[in-house]
Amino acid sequence: MSVAVQVTLYLNASDHWHNRPLHLAILEMLRQEGAYGAVALHGVAGFLGRGPLHSAHLVDVKGDLPVVVVFVDLPEHVERLLPRLREMAPGRLLVRENVQLEQEVEHL
User: For residue 10, what are the domain limits?
Assistant: First the structure.
């Protein structure tokens, strides 16, 4: 087993970076920077901070639904990426936690 770092960012679907959806811009940046892997997950309901609860309805899907971006990488790589993530998602919740890899993969 190895130690790695998992980073989770809590965003809104309406968040943008240079006229692109923020979650896609973050995924693209992580890929360009050689992060091992990442995923963006759209939530069906959620809230950020003290904001209102938003939920998906079949008829009325707005851009204020939650999006969570999660990636796992080596500690030194995460340290290098965190300043850029803070720049791209100011004021958004960013969580870093040490994790134990139960099954290792080739590229990490």
Answer: 2-101
Total residue length of the chain:
108
Q: Give dist(CA 45, CA 5) in Å, integer.
A: 26
User: What is the distance between the alpha carbons of residues 12 and 23, in angstroms, rounded to a whole number?
Assistant: 9
Quote the number of domains for the chain.
1
| Number of DSSP helices (H) and strands (E) in the chain, helices first | 2, 8
**What pLDDT was estimated at residue 77?**
94
For 27-41, the pLDDT digits (tens) are 999 999 999 889 999
We report the CATH number of the domain holding residue 91 as 3.30.70.120
Is-contact 55 66, C-beta < 8 A? Answer: no
Q: Could you tell me the pTM of the whole model?
A: 0.84
d(CA 43, CA 55): 8
Whether residue 69 is contained in a domain is answered as yes
Query: For 53-66, how does the pLDDT look when each residue is reduced to its tens digit (9 = 90+)?
Result: 777 665 445 557 88
